[in-house]
Amino acid sequence: MEWIVKRETRYAGRYIELQELTVRLPDGRTASREVVRVRDAVAVLPLDQEERVYLVRQHRPAVEKTLLEAPAGLIDPGEEPEEAAVRECEEEIGFRPGRLIRLVRYAHAEGYSSGFITLFIGTDLEPSGPLRLDETEHLENVRIPFSDLLERVRSNEIQDSKTILASLFWAEMRSGRPGKK
Q1: CA distance linking residue 127 with residue 143, whole number of Å
Q2: Core-most of 40, 42, 48, 54, by most CB within 10 Å?
């Protein structure tokens, strides 16, 4: 275990805060750690009655690629993950899931980030009106059969962790294999 001896904020922006930590190692020495503090997020894999999934294609400058992803976003202060999941679906794909199935909450970059993502499957989709994107969001909606998404995950065409995990969890759950909840 490492114990935090000192914490200094090196940068604070709208989305991230970079902290430098001085930690005491189990053998008594000290070391430096850089940690990115972010708000937690949600992602939803929305499925209609025909098992088609609703995804968004968007450019991600950090990885310099355009990715196909499950709708996702930050949890607002005071908001529950389920509320954020419904909101993000309405904003990004124009559908409201009537039912959410919580899959997992995981650390998305535990080596350097404080952030967790909660994954959901969204079913019983109802139209909720026009998209409500942030003014800087530029998304393309994509609807494909779940079987196609799973093949794209297996062929490494899908590179977004939240979409990969949600797809694999759902494939396992619907197969009836052990581990199904």
Answers
A1: 14
A2: 42
